Amino acid sequence: MKIIEIAFSGYSVTDLNRARSFYEGVLGLKPSMVYGDNTNGWIEYDIGSSTLSIGNMAPEWKPSKDGGCVGLEVENFDEAMRCLKENGATMLEPFESPVCRMAVVSDPDGNSLLIHKRK
User: Fold this and answer.
1) pLDDT of 41-67, one tens digit each?
2) How far is it, in rounded angstroms, from Cα 53 to Cα 29?
3) Which one is the CATH code of 3-118: 3.10.180.10, 3.30.450.20, 3.10.20.30, 1.10.10.10?
4) Residue 68 pLDDT > 90, yes or no?
5) Domain range annotation of the chain
6) Which residues pair with 44 in a beta bridge?
7) What does the pLDDT read at residue 107?
8) Could you tell me the pTM of the whole model?
9) Which helix (H) or strand (E) holds 6?
10) Integer Cα distance of 48 and 63 in angstroms
11) Which end of the chain is more exposed for a tag (fewer CB within 10 A), N or C?
């Protein structure tokens, strides 16, 4: 598996309206991509060469005071999935969005990483 960059950092939120009020109203960020709606959605904020994302689209991805999540862009998604499975990684089933394929993987301490491939 070859990781080529951090695709994004992400935070799960419970209330998108409230979260957007904070990220956009308080922090002054401008959305660069909005998918879904304020009930069930994903918002991206481009900051320099990076992206900060918030969303509530995956019920398994819960907000945590213990830390966020980083998305690791891989060169070949299928190869990355094979490698992770062969090595017994704990992970949720891969899923797709209109712009990418991804899977949530846990490190040995239970921290979440997103293995990510843009379409």
Assistant:
1) 999 999 888 899 999 988 788 887 777
2) 11
3) 3.10.180.10
4) no
5) 3-118
6) 33, 53
7) 82
8) 0.69
9) strand 3-12
10) 25
11) C
